[in-house]
Design brief:
Blueprint: H1 4-7, H2 11-29, H3 35-54, E1 62-64, E2 69-71, H4 73-99, H5 106-122, H6 127-145, H7 152-183, H8 188-197, H9 201-217, H10 227-233, H11 236-243, H12 245-259, H13 266-287, H14 294-315, H15 318-342, E3 346-347, E4 350-351, H16 361-364, H17 366-380, H18 386-400, H19 404-430, H20 442-457, H21 463-476
C-alpha cells in the first residue's frame, strides 16, 4: 500500500486534480459569469503546484504508486516549464475570452486537467501511467481545439485532432501491448533489466509503434499532418497552448522512454529518430515558405523546432539531453512572445491572422514590431538572440557524437527557415502600413516584455539555464 510519505512525491499532481474538481464546482454554483474568477484561480493553482515541484529540486530520484511514478531533477525541470507555459497561455486566453465575450469557465478547467496529464507524462515510470497521463492530456486538448463551437474552422480542427489523435493513441497502445507481451512487464526499470539480457524482435516492432504515437504528440514528421489545420482552426490562445506545454511534456516523455527502458535498443531506435528529426526539419522549413496565415506558419515552425530538439535525442547521451532541455526553455519564451503579438493583432475588435496584416507595423506600432522582429530573428537562429544558442547546443552535441550530417542538415534547414521568418520582418518594416492595431491588453504587454528581454539578453547571463539543464540531464542518466 502506498504510504502517506510517498504521496508527497505526487503533491503537485494531487493538488491540481483536487483543484480542478473544486474549480468545476465553483464555476457551476457561482452566480453570474465565473470565467475570470475560475481562470485566475487556475493560474494560482499552477503557481502553487510549481512551488511544490521546486521543493523536490536536487533530491534523489524517488518512485511511488508501486514504481509507476518517478520524481527526479529531470522531472522537476520539465514540470516547471510545463506549468510556466500553461500559466502564461491561460493568462493570454483570459484576455481573449473577454474580448470574444465567451463566458465559459470550463476553459480554465480543461487547461488545468490537460496540464495535470502533462505532469503525469513527465513523471511516468510505467507504460500504464504513461498512457493514462497522455490520454488525460489529449482528451482535454480535443475539447479545447473545438472550443469555439459557433466556428466551423474550430469544430473541424477539433474533429481532425480527435480522429488522428485516436489513431496515434491506438498505435501506441498496440506497441505497448507488444512490448508487454514479449517482456512480461510494463515497468520501465524492469523493462530495462529485461532488455539488457534479451532483445526480442517483437519488442523492437512494439517500440516502433510507441515511437510513432509519441512522434504524433510532438507533431514530428511524418506524423505532423494534423498540425497546420488544427493550429489554424483552433482558437488562437488554444493554438498558443498547443505550441508550448504539450510539446514540452511530450518531448520530455520521449526522452525518458528512449533513454530509460529502451536505452539498450539505441542501435534500433536511433536510426528511426534520425529520420524523424531530419524529416521534421525539412518539412518545417520548406512547408512554411508559402504560408499566408501566421498561425499556419507557426505550425510549420513548431514542426521544424521539434526536429531541431530531437537532434539531442538522436545523439542519445547526457550532452544531447542537456541540449534538448536548453532548447525547450528558449523555445517557450520565443513562442509565448510571438503568440502574445498574434493575439494582439486586432482592428476594431476583429481578430486578424494574415501575415499581410502586419504590413507597416513598424510605423503604426514600433515597439510591437521590434518585439516581433526579436522573436523572428531568434527563431531563425540568428545571433546574439537566444534561439541561436538553443540550436548551437543541440548541433554541437551531434558534432561531438560524430553525427556530422545531422548537424549539417540542421544548419541548412535553418538557413531555409530564416527566409520565412525574415519575410515577416520585411513586411513589418518595408511594406506600406495598414490601419493600426487596437491597443494590446496589459497582460499581453507584460508577457511580451518578459519574453523579449529574455530572448534579447540571454547571452548576458546564460549560466543558470545551462547549469540547471545539465543537472536535469545528469539525473536522467544516473540510474
Amino acid at each position: 500500500m502506498t504510504s502517506l510519505a510517498n504521496l508527497s512525491l505526487a503533491a503537485p499532481e494531487l493538488l491540481m486534480a483536487a483543484a480542478g474538481l473544486v474549480l468545476l464546482m465553483i464555476g457551476v454554483y457561482q452566480k453570474g459569469d465565473a470565467t475570470r474568477l475560475v481562470g485566475w484561480l487556475a493560474v494560482l493553482v499552477m503557481v502553487v503546484a510549481g512551488v511544490l515541484v521546486l521543493k523536490g529540486a536536487g533530491a534523489e530520484a524517488s518512485t511511488t504508486f508501486k514504481g509507476m511514478f518517478v520524481t527526479d531533477t529531470f522531472a522537476v525541470y520539465a514540470k516547471v516549464m510545463v506549468l510556466g507555459a500553461s500559466a502564461l497561455s491561460l493568462i493570454l486566453s483570459l484576455g481573449w475570452l473577454a474580448q470574444e465575450e465567451i463566458k465559459k469557465f470550463e476553459y480554465a478547467v480543461l487547461v488545468l486537467f490537460a496540464t495535470l496529464g502533462m505532469l503525469m507524462m513527465v513523471s511516468a515510470n510505467d507504460l500504464m501511467s504513461l498512457y493514462i497521463g497522455l490520454e488525460l492530456q489529449s482528451l482535454a486538448l480535443y475539447v479545447l481545439a473545438s472550443f469555439k463551437r459557433d466556428s466551423v474552422k474550430s469544430t473541424e480542427a477539433g474533429l481532425k485532432y480527435f480522429v488522428l489523435g485516436s489513431v496515434a493513441s491506438g498505435m501506441m497502445l498496440y506497441g505497448m501491448s507488444m512490448v508487454y507481451g514479449f517482456s512480461g512487464t510494463t515497468n520501465f526499470e524492469v523493462l530495462s533489466e529485461v532488455l539488457s539480457e534479451h532483445q526480442a524482435t517483437g519488442m523492437v516492432v512494439g517500440l516502433v509503434f510507441v515511437m510513432a504515437g509519441l512522434a504524433f504528440k510532438v507533431s514530428a514528421a511524418p506524423f505532423h499532418m494534423w498540425t497546420p489545420d488544427v493550429y489554424e482552426g483552433a482558437p488562437t490562445p488554444v493554438t498558443a497552448f498547443f505550441a508550448l506545454a504539450p510539446k514540452i511534456a511530450a518531448i520530455a516523455l520521449f526522452v525518458r522512454v528512449m533513454t530509460g527502458p529502451f536505452a539498450d535498443l539505441i542501435g534500433a531506435w536511433q536510426q528511426v529518430m534520425w529520420i524523424i528529426a531530419v524529416l521534421s526539419m525539412i518539412v518545417g522549413s520548406f512547408g512554411a515558405i508559402g504560408q499566408q496565415n501566421i498561425k499556419r506558419l507557426m505550425a510549420y515552425s513548431s514542426i521544424g523546432h521539434m526536429g531541431y530538439a530531437l537532434i539531442g535525442l538522436v545523439v542519445g547521451n547526457e550532452e544531447g539531453v542537456q541540449g534538448i532541455l536548453i532548447y525547450l526553455a528558449i523555445y517557450v519564451f520565443m513562442n509565448i512572445g510571438a503568440f502574445a503579438i498574434i493575439l494582439s493583432m486586432r482592428q476594431k475588435g476583429r481578430a486578424l491572422e494574415g501575415i499581410s496584416d502586419l504590413a507597416g507595423l513598424s510605423k503604426t506600432s514600433p515597439l510591437m514590431a521590434a518585439a516581433l522582429a526579436i522573436f523572428m530573428f531568434s527563431m531563425a537562429g540568428i545571433p546574439p538572440m537566444a534561439g541561436f544558442f538553443g540550436k548551437f547546443y543541440v548541433f554541437i552535441s551531434a558534432v561531438h557524437a560524430g553525427m556530422y550530417w545531422l548537424a549539417v542538415i540542421g544548419v541548412l534547414t535553418s538557413v531555409v527557415g530564416a527566409y520565412y521568418y525574415l519575410r515577416i520582418v520585411k513586411v513589418m518594416y518595408f511594406d506600406e502600413p495598414t490601419e493600426a492595431f487596437d491597443t494590446p491588453r496589459l497582460a499581453n504587454r507584460v508577457i511580451l516584455l518578459v519574453a523579449g528581454v529574455f530572448t534579447l539578453f540571454y547571452i548576458v547571463y546564460p549560466s543558470p539555464l545551462l547549469l540547471t539543464a545539465q543537472a536535469a540531464a545528469k539525473s536522467l542518466f544516473a540510474y
